[in-house]
Amino acid sequence: KKNEANIEDVAERCYDEEIWIGAKILFLILKNWSRLAEVYVKLGEYNEAVECAKKANRQPIWKIVCFGCVRAKEFRLAKICGLPLVVDPNELMEVVSFYESRGYFEEVIDLLDSALVHEKAHTGLFTELGVLYTKYKEEVVEDYVKMWWKKAHLPRLVSACEEAYLWLEATYLYFQYEEFDNAARVMMDHAPDAFNPDMFSDTISRVGSMETMYK
């Protein structure tokens, strides 16, 4: 035990002084997978870092390795570490922001899309992927919202569609959300882009506001 404590002290000193090879050897002896993952990132040994992250299986370590791999443009490895993060509602936005702020739109979309089938997929995941599509892949938004609107947070998704001038998709979401006044308003304000004759008839029959009816 005392010997192990001594090794740990030396390992931590190596880490603090950025003696990465020494730290790697000592953390390997100790089987300290968390610290070892960090050291491998520092050394640019990303495959090994991912393997240690799997053994450590802790969110802070997944994040360190994921972000290290993104910085190195090792996106396949980053995706492995990113999946356990984006299925955690508390980690999702930081991961999305990290990719997005560096211009890696395709890669973060690919990561979130892969996570949709995960058993821990959550509302935020479906919502944020939809938001990313409104920014960077407008052509798929219509199919996406029709497929996944029940799993998304509709107010945020509607807002993203309106910011991207995707009026048809915004109308569809308002209708599904039973915000019939808003659905009718968007269709009238942004015809012909948002106008769907069948949906308009159905929407008008459910409108609650007389002001909208008079329009």
Automatic annotation (TrEMBL):
For this protein, the record's Pfam families field holds: Clathrin (PF00637)
Quote the protein name from its UniProt record.
Uncharacterized protein
Alphabetized SUPFAM superfamilies for the sequence: ARM repeat
Gene3D superfamilies xref list: Tetratricopeptide repeat domain
Give one GO term, molecular function aspect: clathrin light chain binding
Gene source species: Rhodosorus marinus
| Assigned GO CC terms | clathrin complex
Annotated coiled-coil positions are none
Swiss-Prot/TrEMBL CHCR repeat ranges: 1-78, 83-215
Q: Which InterPro entries match?
A: ARM-type_fold, CHCR, Clathrin_H-chain/VPS_repeat, TPR-like_helical_dom_sf
Q: Per its UniProt entry, which superkingdom is the organism in?
A: Eukaryota
State any GO BP term from the record: receptor-mediated endocytosis
